[in-house]
Every structure is written in structure tokens, then in C-alpha cells.
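Internal tracking record. Fields below are filled automatically when a chain is submitted to the structure queue. Please do not edit lines marked as system-generated. If the sequence contains nonstandard residues, flag them in the REMARKS field before resubmitting.
Queue: standard
Priority: normal
Entity type: single polypeptide chain
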Amino acid sequence: MSIETLKTRLPDYAKDLKLNLGSLATEPALNAQQRAGSFIVAALASRNPTVTAAILAEFAPQLSAAALAAAKAAASMMAMNNIYYRFTHLVGGNYAEMPAKLRMNVMARPGVEKADFELWSLAVSAVNGCGMCMVAHEKVVRAAGLSAEQVQAAVRIAAVVHAVAATLDGEDALAG
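SYSTEM-GENERATED OUTPUT FOLLOWS
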């Protein structure tokens, strides 16, 4: 399975998604590790087995074992953090001032450049819709020297991968 397989599975009405998948697969604003990791974390956050399998087949070979583990850790960690921090942000009160009491050790030593891990965390946060996490991670990656174009590229990847997953989920529901 690969990106080409995903593109063939998409219906004609999703032609723009096919085109976007193709162009983002070689997005020049990101280096190979940033690009591959962004695809992988977005696929994992999408929770669609077909999308995840295709993206992993396409992009996992482009990453070292440590970088692949870090991408998986970013998706896993942000699945937890996005729920918790979205709650503290939306509910208000004094929850944001209380210690989270959630283990997040991987964030201190992710096994890749901190900026890449933070970029992947930002991409997952975009998929999961946590504004507080998006703001926090965007600030960190910009302070680390990543450009607005690099941030935008990672979020564009997340948006397209999520849209592909949503489209395939919808098509599967209609067929089933």
C-alpha cells in the first residue's frame, strides 16, 4: 500500500485531495524527516487503518528507527494532551493552574530534534482541534527557527491526510 493506492481509492469528487497528496509528498518547505513525520503523525491521528497503513508504507522507510518511534510517540502523547488541554482551555476555571499529573517524559527527550517533535505535535494538535496545544507548539517551533511556511506545510499535510481519512470513512459507510 502507498500514497498511489490511497489516491486510487479516493472517489472522483475528491480529485483535489488526490492532487494535494501528490504535491505534499514532495513538499519542499520541509526536510525529509519533517515531511515524513508529519504524514505519519497525521495518519495516526486520523484513526483510519487504510490511511495509516498506506502512509506508513510510504513514509516509514524514510525515517530512522528513532524518528519513527518519535513520530509515533508524538501522535500518542498528543492524543492524550489534546483532550486534557482542550478541556482546561474550554472549561476555564482554575483547571489550567492545576498540575496535569500526566506523564509526558517523551516530550523532554523524544529521540529526534526537539523542533521536529514539536512540529509533529503541532500537526496532531491541528487534526485533533486543540487550540491551546496548537498555539503552544507553534510558538516553540517558531522560536526554534522554523518558518511560517514550514509550519503551514505541516498543517497542510495534516489537513489533507485527515480529509482523505474522512472521505474514505464516508465512502466505507455508504458502501457498508
